[in-house]
Amino acid sequence: MKIRSMRAAFLAGLVLAFLSCITVNIYFPESVVRKTAEDIVNEVRSSDKAIKDEVKKDKVIKSAGFSLVPRLHAQQETEVTTPKIRALKESIKGRFDPLVPYFDAGRIGETMDGNLQVLNEDGLSLQDRSVLRKLVKDENQDRKDLYAEVAKALDVDPSQIDRVQKIFAEQWIGKAHAGWMIQNADGSWVKK
Fold this sequence. Notes:
By secondary structure, the protein is α+β, with helices and mostly antiparallel strands. The protein has one domain (30-191). 61% of the residues lie in helices and 6% in strands. It has 7 helices and 4 strands. It has a 4-stranded mixed beta sheet with strand order 2-1-3-4.
């Protein structure tokens, strides 16, 4: 009787040890998220002349190459869109032009977590401060919702939304104009 219970305990321990070695790998489509972020940031900032020139130049470079593989098979379609994503893009796009003067003046900056942060309100009237704060608050809420919607559309586990947000942050910072404030990895602020 004692041997049976020892065997059962040994087998249970063996099974437990085996199961504890199993890790759950959560799939994260990084390349698709990266392409989606790039497309969305370019579209949102499409009124920006610098972005338009960069996209045009990028298209010329890509089309100039020679390939034996037909383009239809060489490139995977990665456009991620839903009605909610389209609405969020339009909202963010509509807010971009009013934000540009604040970017240019160094009053706001792009954070490492994909949001905007108010950096300087000196010299602004009470009304202008209120406008600035509302623009930033609305922008950050739309961006937060956008990251969640992109993750949902790509069936990304909700625990991975911070990875989606980081990838978007890289795009927002990468598309910032020279002279705009961006946050470094250590949390400090610098002009791009």
